[in-house]
Amino acid sequence: MNTRPTAATPTPRPRIAALPVYSRAAGSASVRWRASSNESTVAPSPAIRAAVARAAAHAHLYPSLAGDDLIAAISERMGVREDQVVVGGGSLALLQLALTAFTGPGTEVIHAWRSYEAYPILIGIADAQAVPVALDHEYRHDTQAMLAALTPRTSAMLICDPNNPTGTALPPRRLRALLDAVPSHVLVLMDRAYQEFDRTEPDAAALVAERPNVIVFRTFSKAYGLAGLRAGYAIGSPEVMRAVRATAPPFGLSAVAEAAALAAWSDREHTRHIVDTVTESRETFRRALGERGLFTPDSRANFVWLPVGDRAEALQAACVRRGVSVRAFAGEGVRVTVGCPQAEAAVLAAVDECGDRAASAAQ
Ligand SMILES: *Cc1c(COP(=O)(O)O)cnc(C)c1O
User: In 3D, which of 114, 107, 130 has the Cα closest to residue 18?
Assistant: First the structure.
């Protein structure tokens, strides 16, 4: 026998072995429309594609160490110093760096729940303790409860605004009150992945100038339509960003992603087109759901939250049967990415089907 039943295999750290797995949306590989990952429904503009092709011709060379050109462009438009900006392969990667730099064993990270499913995973990788705080009855961050969750062990608070998957945003006054009440030694990670769809541009420069404990995370994946290339940026005070930069892998942003992000950053017409497409679809879709008696929270993002509770998985299955992938959270609801009227029509048909089924089951 050449099997070695007693051979030990390398053991990961217990926290790593216990991490939840980032879920895949049911049917997303085979459907006609993808409405499960909040991707843009608009393909890259010709200017972006040309920039990608130009960068690809030099793919044998390393990019700049830290994404210097993109940092310069962001710092100029946002009105912050270059040492206040860190760029990387997606905003999630940057969030991971910040959690690694500022949290860890023995510390707690407060975040809303239901919120982005990546948070418990990223906090677990940093070996910190996640402290989830339930959303309020309007599907918003419960700012009072989040403040009540602060302890001497709190190292950071995550704020997802607009919140994924409910789409809700905090009224600016409530957000400000929350930031004012968080002690200045606690890092505040503001995830603004969907900010552009909110049609507001809170002054990130002023925010981080007033509050050196805040980092704002933004992405090229949603309103810039570059999810497949992986690019994001973070803005904060020079002091906190120095630590984030210190944890960053060298060459973390690929040359192709940087070129595409730079082109998308200057192609403001393209971003406007994506935002307009989403806004139009979102309002039409919410109105159609409302006409069917299905309440949806006021979404400020590129998706709509359908709080269908126990019918979530049945609705997801009905959507997939009709050719559109959506994201179900069992017992809670379904998140539908918007921006394609045909996909939204298919979801509405699935909603009608599930509603009828539920009604006939009740008879
Ligand atoms: C989509 C999304 C991101 C973006 O992540 P990238 O790594 O930049 O693609 C970040 N935060 C939230 C809440 C998101 O929904």
Answer: 130
